[in-house]
Amino acid sequence: MQEFILPENLSKISNGYTWRRITIGHSESKTYLLTGTSVNLYLKIQSLTAIESLLNEKNRLEWLQGKLSVPEVLYYGKDYTNEYLLITEIAGVNASDKSFEMTSSAIMKQLAAGLREVHEVKIDNCPFNQRLESKIEEARKRVQNKLVDEEDFDQIRLGLSPEDLLKELLFKRPMMEDLVFTHGDYCLPNIIIDNDRFSGVIDWGRAGIADRYQDLALAARSITYNFGKKHVQHFLDEYGIKELDESKIYFYQLLDEFF
């Protein structure tokens, strides 16, 4: 059920749909599935005081049209309190769904195939910078402004302070970056599988030019959490990693603690 007054143009577009709140994931926005016609839609509503803006995702989705299977932006706007982003649905089920437990090996192949597609997007004219210099500076600002959620740290870092993690991050920063176009949060809830095939990826707000290990590290962590660590190597083999850089896996999982 609708909980607030929408901007007039958005209200017209979404009129006649049935709303259902989607709670999977850790987004700052409230996400709703809108059903009732031949095409399902997703609406994200986020406070203007949120750390990240929905405008980031809107701009990336528009840039990616024709390059990858991503949602289409139908509406973006804001009022005095919120931002609103209305997008089309990518058909399928997210890859963390328990229905995939019996076919997890096959799913690893699809996750790897999907990530290769993302990393093959040409970066020559990409306007979205997620290189380490930019990301570390953003992490530093989040620590200074008390915006890091210590309670959401991975198990191995619980009890440490954001300041402790920032020191470690600076000390373990990789010397070189293998730059590709990255999703930025390539976790199973963001990967859509349809009829046992990779269908697309959602939640593109952190996408941009970065080291490929930005995606590999978070994918490995998500696979471990959802299906068990034994499946990670299969995923990496399918992706084409011949010699894994464990230090980068660790570093990019550490970096994610700030976001």
From TrEMBL:
It comes from the Bacteria. InterPro entries: AGP_Transferase, Aminoglycoside_PTrfase, Kan/Strep_kinase, Kinase-like_dom_sf. Pfam families: APH. Residues 19-242 form the Aminoglycoside phosphotransferase domain. The keyword Membrane does not apply. Keywords: Antibiotic resistance, ATP-binding, Kinase, Nucleotide-binding, Transferase. Belongs to the aminoglycoside phosphotransferase family. NCBIfam families: APH_3p. This is Aminoglycoside 3'-phosphotransferase. The lineage of its organism: Bacteria, Bacillati, Bacillota, Bacilli, Bacillales.
